[in-house]
Amino acid sequence: MVLWTRLALDPLADTGLGGMPGRRYEVQWQVAKDERFRRVVRAGSATADPRGAHSVHVEVGGLRAGTEYFYRFRVQGHLSPVGRTTTTPARGLSQGLTMCFASCAHFGEGFFTAYRRLAQDQPDLVLHLGDYQYEYAAKAADVRTVVGPETRTLAGYRQRHAQYKTDPDLQLAHATAPWLVVWDDHETENNWADDVPEAPDPAFLDRRAAAFQAYYENMPLRRSARPQGIDMRLYRRFNWGDLATFHMLDTRQYRDDQACGDGTKIDCADRLDPSRTILGDQQEAWLLDGFRRSRARWDVLGQQVFFAQRDLTAGPQQGFSMDGWDGYRANRDRIAAALGQVRNGVVLTGDVHRHWAGEIKENADRPDSRGVGVELVATSVTSSGDGNEGTNSTQLAENPHLKFYKNRRGYVRTTFTAGELRSDFRILPYVRTPDAPVSTAASFVTPDRDPSLHPA
Asked: What are the Phospholipase D N-terminal domain coordinates in residue numbering (predicted)?
């Protein structure tokens, strides 16, 4: 378990250092079995160092498996709000899991009500699949003002993360349950690929290093994830007893540049090149080895971009996004084949600012071929604004393996048991004003050993 906090007297200070003096502070922490801290079971102190923008990452061991706990911090007489967390069940147990996942939260394009509604669902676990924050400067159409210019420096990224962390809805979601996080592109810049920026930029690697450092400082990550210059290992594995194994992927840091100049392309031969990779050789080998060793009931990929084939062009021609797995066909085929060998394969996705649900096929060009898993795609928290009631009937018709689409903001709530996976696609009617209600647009059940989506 990792407990996170950061000290900041003036969170939006231009220096990115939160208005803090340039010295270390000892931060006391406590973990208790009750919200009033009458039964404290672990306690200690950690150093908040100015070199890490006074962030604190506490790795707590020795707790009981499958148990709810509460935590708080204290420094120089100041007491933090109380957070709730839970430990994973012991191996050998298949204790049920309620998990919500979300992505794509642009501060300027809406209010983070979806995070509050997510917290009200009281999940055991939250997954964030990327675009936790956006690099862009403020736009005239924004409903909230983003501080600072487009983020390019360590100070800028720190300031932007700090602004996000001041949001009360996001604070509530973090305080409700443990989070597993991975980035997408906007934590650094749009559609970057390994050492290749979206547009030529000789300072890109410096920008990447700054973005990685600020991301680590502001997320509940273990010390082993601390970046080393332009490198930061974010992919990792997480077990929920014997019920589920989460394979958290990084589809940005090791990928080849997008084929055919990025965007949506028809007849792009380069996307079929078997040497092209979205994961990199080392991460792919790690993932395939994890599949081979897995004894979990559900193997879950927490990742960023659309995995299943998605033809974006009406008619006989096929057009595909070069940024998603369609732009890395051979790599996708290898992972899909391995996914078909586990008991139940599930892919969780963000990025596209829409809800989708689909069935992953053994042969991407044959919708009637054997299913190897299901893909659940979460819409954005705010990005792209309120959305609309469009049905996208053309894309659904072109892709019969895709079963559901919704262009509203929200998140996905999942419930894992030994017998089935239930997915509830939660939506808000608006985000450009605060406090929207939440409802469920659609629900699906995936039974054990049945890689398909059944309306619930």
From this structure: 1-87
Of the chain, the percentage scoring pLDDT greater than 70 comes to 100
CA distance 352 to 104: 8
Confidence of residue 251 (pLDDT cuts 50, 70, 90): very high
Which of 87, 116, 142 is at the close of a domain? 87
3 state DSSP class of 281: helix
Q: Give the integer Cα–Cα distance in Å for 324 and 274.
A: 16
The pLDDT score that the predictor gives to residue 94 is 84
The pLDDT tens digits of the residues spanning 267-307 come to 999 999 999 999 999 999 999 999 999 999 999 999 999 99
Of 87, 103, 118, the residue that ends a domain is 87
Structurally, the chain folds into a number of domains equal to: 2
**pLDDT (tens digit, 9 = 90+) per residue, 42-101?**
999 999 999 999 999 999 999 999 999 999 999 999 999 999 999 999 998 888 999 999
- The residue type of 164 is Y
3-state secondary structure of 326: helix
How far is 289 from 291, CA to CA, in rounded Å? 5
* CA dist., res. 105 & res. 112, Å (int): 7
Is the backbone of residue 92 left (phi > 0), alpha (psi -120 to 50) or beta? left
Reduce the DSSP state of residue 374 to 3 states and report it: strand
Q: How far is CA 350 from CA 108, 414, 428, in A?
A: 19, 15, 17
Residue 27 structural domain: 1-87
Let me know whether 105 and 243 are in one domain.
Answer: yes
| Nearest to 57, CA basis, from 210, 141, 179, 154 | 179
Cβ-based neighbours of 431, under 8 Å, separated by 6 or more = 109, 110, 111, 113, 114, 381, 382, 385, 386, 409
Q: Are residues 430 and 293 in the same domain?
A: yes
- Specify whether the backbone of 127 is left (phi greater than 0), alpha (psi in -120 to 50) or beta: beta
